[in-house]
Amino acid sequence: xSKSRLYSGMQPSADSLQVGNYIxxxxxWRDLQDAYDAFFSVVDLHALTxxxxxxxxxxxxxxxxxxxxxxxxxxxxxxxxxxxxxRAHAELAWILSTITGFGEASRMTQFKDxxxxxxxxxxxxxxxxxxxxxxxxxxxxxxxxxxxxDDQKQHVELTRDLAERFxxxxxxxxxxxxxxxxxxxxxxxxxxxxTAKMSKSAxxxxxxxxxxxxPAVSAKKIMRAVTDNDGSVRYDRESxxxxxxxxxxxxxxxxxxxxxxxxxxxxRGYGDFKKGLAEVVVxxxxxxxxxxxxxLADPAELDRVLASNADRAAEVADATLADVYDKVGLxxxx
Length: 334
Ligand code: TYM
What we know:
single chain
């Protein structure tokens, strides 16, 4: 029996991924890549919705791909490629935009948040149609599951709606995908502001743990993480959001259960607990960082791997797009 399809991606919107990307998505990807026919993209077209320096965007794209590989995604096993290398993405996004309601797109909370943050003048149309491009990414590959963090759930719901609408209007062209969200790690919070999601675009750097940060810097950020006055290492999302977030990170990186970590640090105070977590983070990120920097030292080889993976991706994507063009009635070029 052939394997089910898995699709996911990340924006190359910073020099490094943050621990939320790593725990919320990348760890799942790594664990699922054997059981699924997996496609992982670096979604550079999506990143264009924010202001970018062109040379920096190219560099961030390579850095994001290098971090996928360094974290354990194997480009000989999974298809790891750059979104803009497969032209079908932008083309299918156009077709899907013609069956997306204006109101439907207006309800996307990520768009509402971002447009509120930047103001109407700085909000571009690409930001508005961003979820339609994401739907195109997923639907081109006849995807069964989409492992993501909690913040992408609404976008995957829209993707499902568009797939069903297209299939019923024009005949079945798409598999209807499902988001898979690891509930306990679906949302990692900012270390300084533990009720806000940790994000690559956070205003302050102090609350964000970067995969490629110097280990000493990560350790310092953990030691300075916001906690509370209660003094006990106990999970309670409502009244102890800082400590709970640190426990989530600790558990995810060690594969341990939260209660066993609570037991270990019972009666020992936050200093000890944070030191323990800092050691875990340094031990986990150290090798990933080293491997990523090694890969980045040979950009030609990295580009070669990305190009051959893009060829593999394009084969699947082009077949879906050709079927869609046919179904909507575009005249075939002879
Ligand atoms: P992006 O680049 O913002 O984030 C990449 C992945 O990391 C997850 N994530 C988090 N998980 C837990 N806690 C956090 N604090 C945290 N921050 C980020 C995100 O949920 C995501 O899984 N629109 C997508 C990229 C995309 C995509 C796709 C994803 C484009 N096309 C197709 C899946 C399938 C995004 O901006 O992710």
